[in-house]
Design goal:
Radius of gyration: 20 Å
Number of helices: 7
Number of strands: 0
Shape: globular
Order of helices and strands: HHHHHHH
Distance between the termini: 36 Å
Largest sheet: none
Strand content: under 5%
Helix content: over 70%
Structural class: mainly alpha
Oligomer: single chain
Length: 222
Amino acid sequence: MKGSSLFYALCLAVAVGFGIAPYLVFFVAPVEPVQGFIQKIFYFHVPCAWSMFLAAFVCAFGGGVYLFRGRRWGDALSAAGAELTVVFGLLVLITGPLWAKKAWGHYWVWDVRLTTVFVLFLVFVAVLLARRYGGPANRRIAAGLALFGAADVPLVYISVKLWRTIHPETTVVRSLPAGMRLAFFVSLILFTCLFLLLLWIRVRLEQSRNRLDDVTIMVAER
């Protein structure tokens, strides 16, 4: 009962958020004077990146639980996290170049921040491929790859501080004016709730698949 209440609360939060966040982004937050209207991608690009990082850590945590403790719920969590990392990573790789074209004049440059994000995305694509085509040890291989991929997340975050890069530093959020800050944090909360909702649904689906597999095996052995 408590779980159902939390699920419906997340659904409500996402529904309300999708009504409030776009209004704040497009009608309340001021237009950035240098980049113009295209800068509003920022309010979706950064929350997508945040969700991608969360998903990568969830995938690695679940993979670690399965790899070292053999818990099937860990594998279900890892499967859900891997898929969400790829989904949100794809959104990052779409919104980022659209913004970069206006800001830098090119859709893509091999900047260290962009490169490490792309590597992170590819690693979790590899996690999904390993789960599907890795043979009898597919889940263990995928779990190991997930742990390796999650180690790239801190590198992505600190890359703008360790190397010279044209990508904005993480301190840009703290320097936002009040109107922009409100729109940003509402959007961040929205995408966090969306991530949690999708994670919940995907884990439950994976657990249902595992139970179905158990029943199928049980019937086949009779």
